[in-house]
Automatic annotation (TrEMBL):
Record field: transmembrane: 7-27
Name assigned to this protein: MSHA biogenesis protein MshA
Keywords: Membrane, Transmembrane, Transmembrane helix
Organism in which the protein naturally occurs: Photobacterium frigidiphilum
InterPro entries associated with the record: N_methyl_site, Pilin-like
Pfam families (alphabetical): N_methyl
Family annotation (PANTHER family): GENERAL SECRETION PATHWAY PROTEIN G, MSHA MAJOR PILIN SUBUNIT MSHA
Listed Gene3D superfamilies: Glycoprotein, Type 4 Pilin
PROSITE patterns in the cross-refs: PROKAR_NTER_METHYL
SUPFAM superfamilies referenced in this protein's UniProt entry, alphabetically: Pili subunits
Length: 155
């Protein structure tokens, strides 16, 4: 008697059902890549802003203007106590591609001390909860140096 090899139709259906169940349970873990990519992009921008601010401060220190308030300029970057001002022009001169890749908007136009950066084309609601916030230096002490923070709660 010849032995037949292969699978029966029922066995194939059972395997397909099991694969379907695994796909349904595993898919949500892999569907959230867009949010993770946005958060990683904001982390990268924060690193770029922090790095540029540190380099600008170093150049300002070499020129001896790190203790001065506003009004000084180092290589096209307007300064506040050695760090870039919180304007898209000053930060754009310090960071290559900042103004072409990101949207900037003022947080408090009256004080002019904070600016947010977010993805190009984001609407006003998304800007509130998915951005990098740069606060310019307000004094000579380390506690009043420029700061960069991230809000990813709405990304």
């Amino acid at each position: 008697m010849k032995r037949q090899g292969g699978f029966t139709l029922i066995e194939l259906v059972v395997v397909i059902v099991i694969l379907g169940i695994l796909a349904v349970t595993a898919a949500p873990k892999f569907m959230n890549f867009q949010d993770d990519a946005r958060k990683a992009s904001l982390q990268g921008l924060k690193g770029a802003v922090d790095g540029a601010a540190g380099i600008v401060f170093g150049k300002a220190a070499l020129e001896g203007v790190e203790g001065d308030g506003t009004g000084k300029n180092v290589e096209g970057v307007d300064l506040a106590f050695g760090y870039p001002l919180s304007t898209s022009a000053a930060l754009g001169n310090a960071i290559v591609g900042l103004n072409t890749d990101w949207d900037a908007f003022d947080v408090d136009a009256s004080s002019g001390k904070n600016i947010k950066f977010t993805f190009k084309g984001y609407d006003a609601e998304k800007r509130k909860t998915c951005h990098v916030l740069y606060s310019q230096a307000t004094g000579k002490l380390a506690t009043s140096a420029a700061k960069t923070t991230i809000d990813t709660s709405g990304c």
